[in-house]
């Protein structure tokens, strides 16, 4: 083997000497490449201390000096040795000292060519000159730039040790990825342990090549490849009513690769404080979720309450101590079998109003829902089981509603007659289908209705009011006693549509419903109190109803041929539908006639039919119903010649998306059989303006006092009386919409599922889109309500909403949201947000100029998460901050 290697190097030397004597060496078309494999041989005088294969190439030439054991490579030289690789314009490999040296070059204009690029495992170094020892794995790098975590390390000279530690002099650390960074941390000495941390001696900050006095005696910057635990630096500021503060300071825990935890706190100079615990977890391809718990103790002095108009408002200290819990759990894959999901938002009544500094949307919201659900289903099975626990709270009324639990078992649509047939006969009755659903629910509410207080006299229709109990241990028994629970069974029988006379579709159906109750009401009139006493009896009771229904529909087309230059034809589509439903009379079974007036006072004793059961699923149908409902839907389209095509091609343009009218007639009612007429209209004007309106008309007359008469208004020459009407117009404009020239109503709809910029300033950078120069969204809403009395005025409301964005330049973006209420003659919630991209920095300004949530904030911060505490903030907000 040694003789073979000696022959190879000798031949290489001869070839190299011949190549040096050959003119125009750079034009040689061959690319010499020599692989020296020493992994299977012992070390000798030629081999040196190399322990694995070295592969090296060059675009120009490779010169081997066998006597001095040197390999020189020119023009785009490349060396690969294990996990190490080196690329440069010129390199020299010394087998005697195990050193490799690399330098770059410059062209005639002074532009750098072939700057040395050194990679060792996952670390990358770019420098003017590199020297590296294969044996000791030590090196010296001049004018180096290497990436450490999210930052970049610049140094005049860096020494790399065998243990991967690096020592640099005249160093700079920055998160700016430019060769000449906008800012950096300047230090004469610096030590870096790749993938872990960076230490510096005394340092100061430099912005735009201008040194600042900001700095410290030493610096520590973590640069982990993975998540790691560490301190969270708090932000500082001042609040009017709580004083100076340190906010969101604490510690970040990495429990394992799937779970983390963030524990932070707030402290104020006037005695208030807060605690927050946040945790996120994820199981790849299975589920993910998070949980957040917050507690606040507010010792702000009580002030008088007043609403803000131009200046900031003052709020009472409503809750000295408050808390909030948020959690979510979501499966990430669709797996057969059981799966859990959860969404929890609950806490004390005024926590969001007092503590949501950065989210006006949460502070203004007054309804929060929570749910925990388990669902079991298999694709091959018709059965589905769902169990859930629900919670609803209203922060305005203080009412809590708990559904603990709610369970549903369902059997999907089945066709029993087909089970016993090997081959279909094509008969219509084969499509008769059954489905089954049973639901059980238990509702616990802190609101006790005035008409359901057990054993207490209640004035029917009188002045008794509902009671809202506080959710605490003292009221626990009373709240549980107010619980309402029941079970409902549903068995619908349906079938596919039957074609009649070629043009009509008939869809019949039957349904059977049965409800199980556990409370029964007994009514007794107390003559001396002129009140009705309600006694509640616990037990097991059942109520059933059955009904039949059928619907008949068809389609009528009408086409008007024009044959014009642009318009080919106009088509009108009418879709009439008639449906009928029948329910028998169950009044004797499920209601009682109750006297609610004194005989010695009134001639006509009022009688009311009151239900004997109380149910979550509603009171069973008490009286016979025989309803016929009818509707007529109209669509108008126009066939026009396509602008982009010279051939005889046409496209459809919608003129009226929907013009419909619905009403009904109850044959079983003794009066007012004809129902109100509901008219809807929806279209897209000028391919950009969505228009929707609806109106309700009453076919009966009314008296001057507003009392409705069982007499058609048509008898007095009026077709129907307008009751109320609504109009909504919306338009969303952007350059893409103008280019397309047409959009559907869905494309024009506002993108309400995207978080607004004013709700969370931390999300500003994530949702800034510099590709769209500007956007504009307009929304106008008007409503009209006709007063039933001639003495009262009609109610009219009108409001206009405007929001959008403007890109002043590629780096400047302005977003805005405002509106005007024409009825109250005042502006609605208004906000202005300005964002500036500063490359490695960013600036955001948020301003609410007036109203209850008047505030402003200015933030300038580094974009990198590792230097997120390097920022300048100025905030001024509402007084309860």
Automatic annotation (TrEMBL):
Domain LPS-assembly protein LptD central: 198-700
UniProt cross-references to InterPro entries, sorted A to Z: LptD, LptD_2
Pfam entry (one): LptD_2
UniProt KW keywords: Signal
Domain of life: Bacteria
A GO cellular component entry from the record: cell outer membrane
Signal peptide: 1-19
Protein name as annotated: LPS-assembly protein LptD central domain-containing protein
Species per Swiss-Prot/TrEMBL record: Adhaeribacter pallidiroseus
């Amino acid at each position: 083997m040694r003789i073979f290697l000696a022959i190879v190097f000798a031949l290489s030397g001869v070839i190299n000497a011949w190549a040096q004597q050959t003119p125009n060496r750079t034009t040689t078309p061959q690319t010499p490449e020599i692989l020296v494999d020493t992994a299977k041989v012992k070390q000798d005088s030629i081999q040196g201390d190399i322990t694995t294969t070295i592969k090296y190439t060059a675009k120009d030439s490779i010169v081997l000096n066998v006597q001095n054991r040197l390999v020189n490579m020119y023009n785009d030289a490349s060396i690969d040795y294990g996990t190490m690789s080196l690329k440069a314009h010129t390199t020299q490999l010394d087998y005697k000292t195990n050193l490799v040296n690399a330098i770059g070059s410059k062209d005639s204009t002074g532009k750098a060519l072939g700057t040395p690029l050194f990679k060792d495992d996952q670390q990358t170094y770019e420098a003017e000159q590199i020297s590296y020892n294969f044996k000791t794995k030590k090196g010296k790098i001049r004018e180096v730039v290497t990436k450490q975590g999210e930052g970049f390390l610049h140094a005049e000279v860096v020494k790399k040790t065998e243990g991967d530690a690096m020592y640099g002099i005249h160093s700079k650390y920055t998160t700016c990825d430019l060769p000449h960074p906008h800012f950096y941390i300047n230090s004469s000495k610096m030590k870096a342990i790749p993938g872990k941390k960076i230490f510096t001696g005394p340092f100061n900050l430099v912005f735009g090549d201008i040194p600042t006095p900001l700095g410290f005696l030493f610096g520590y910057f973590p640069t982990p490849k993975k998540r790691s635990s560490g301190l969270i630096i708090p932000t500082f500021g001042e609040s009017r009513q709580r004083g100076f503060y340190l906010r969101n300071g604490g510690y970040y825990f990495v429990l394992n690769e799937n779970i983390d935890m963030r524990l932070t706190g707030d402290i104020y100079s006037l005695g208030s404080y807060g605690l927050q615990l946040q945790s996120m977890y994820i199981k790849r391809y299975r589920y993910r979720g998070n949980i957040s718990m917050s507690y606040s103790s507010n010792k702000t002095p009580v002030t008088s309450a007043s609403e803000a108009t131009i200046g900031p408002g003052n709020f009472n200290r409503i809750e000295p101590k408050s808390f909030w819990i948020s959690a979510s759990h979501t499966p990430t894959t669709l797996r057969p079998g059981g799966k859990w999901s959860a969404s929890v938002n609950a806490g004390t009544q005024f926590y969001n109003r007092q503590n949501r500094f950065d989210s006006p949307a949460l502070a203004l919201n007054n309804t929060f829902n929570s749910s925990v659900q388990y669902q079991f289903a298999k694709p091959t099975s018709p059965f589905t089981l769902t169990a859930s626990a629900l919670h609803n709270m209203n922060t305005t009324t203080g009412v809590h509603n708990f559904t603990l639990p709610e369970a549903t078992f369902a059997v999907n649509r089945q066709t029993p007659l087909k089970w016993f047939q090997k081959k279909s006969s094509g008969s219509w009755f084969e499509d008769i289908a059954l489905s089954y659903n049973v639901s059980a629910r238990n509702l616990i509410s802190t609101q006790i209705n005035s008409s359901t207080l057990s054993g207490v006299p209640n004035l029917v229709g009188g002045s008794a009011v509902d009671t809202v109990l506080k959710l605490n241990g003292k009221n626990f028994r009373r709240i549980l006693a107010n619980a309402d629970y029941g079970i409902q069974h549903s068995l619908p029988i349906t079938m596919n549509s039957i074609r009649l006379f070629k043009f009509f579709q008939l869809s019949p159906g039957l349904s059977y419903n049965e409800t199980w109750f556990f409370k029964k009401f007994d009514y007794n009139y107390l003559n001396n109190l002129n009140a009705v006493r309600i006694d509640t009896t616990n037990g097991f009771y059942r109520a059933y109803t059955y009904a039949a229904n059928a619907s008949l529909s068809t389609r009528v087309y009408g086409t008007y041929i024009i044959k014009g230059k642009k318009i080919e034809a106009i088509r009108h589509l009418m879709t009439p539908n008639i449906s009928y439903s029948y329910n028998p009379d169950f009044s004797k079974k499920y209601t009682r006639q109750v006297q609610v007036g004194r005989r010695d006072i009134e001639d006509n004793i009022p009688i009311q039919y009151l239900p004997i059961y109380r149910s979550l699923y509603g009171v069973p149908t008490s009286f016979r119903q025989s309803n016929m409902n009818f509707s007529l839907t109209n669509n108008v389209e126009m066939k026009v010649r396509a602008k982009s095509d010279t051939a005889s091609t046409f496209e459809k343009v919608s003129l009226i998306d929907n013009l419909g009218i619905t009403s009904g007639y109850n044959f079983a009612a003794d009066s007012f059989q004809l129902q109100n007429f509901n008219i809807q209209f929806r279209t897209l004007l000028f391919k950009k303006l969505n228009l929707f309106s609806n109106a309700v008309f009453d076919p009966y007359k009314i008296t001057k006092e507003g009392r409705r008469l069982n007499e058609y208004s048509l008898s007095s020459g009026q077709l129907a009386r307008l009751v109320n009407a609504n109009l909504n117009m919306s338009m969303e404009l952007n350059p893409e919409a103008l280019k397309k020239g047409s959009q559907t109503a869905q494309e024009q709809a506002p993108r309400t599922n995207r978080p607004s910029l004013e709700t969370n300033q931390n999300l500003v950078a994530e949702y800034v889109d510099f590709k769209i120069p500007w956007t504009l969204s307009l929304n106008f809403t008007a409503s009209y309500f006709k007063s039933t009395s001639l003495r009262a005025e009609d109610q009219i409301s009108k409001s206009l909403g405007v929001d959008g964005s403007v890109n002043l330049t590629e780096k400047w973006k302005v977003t805005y949201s405002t509106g005007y209420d024409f009825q109250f003659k005042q502006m609605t919630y208004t906000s202005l947000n300005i964002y500036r991209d500063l490359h490695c920095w960013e600036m955001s300004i948020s301003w609410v100029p007036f109203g209850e949530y008047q505030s402003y904030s200015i933030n300038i911060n580094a974009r990198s998460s590792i230097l997120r505490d390097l920022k300048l903030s100025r905030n001024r907000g509402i007084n309860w901050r």
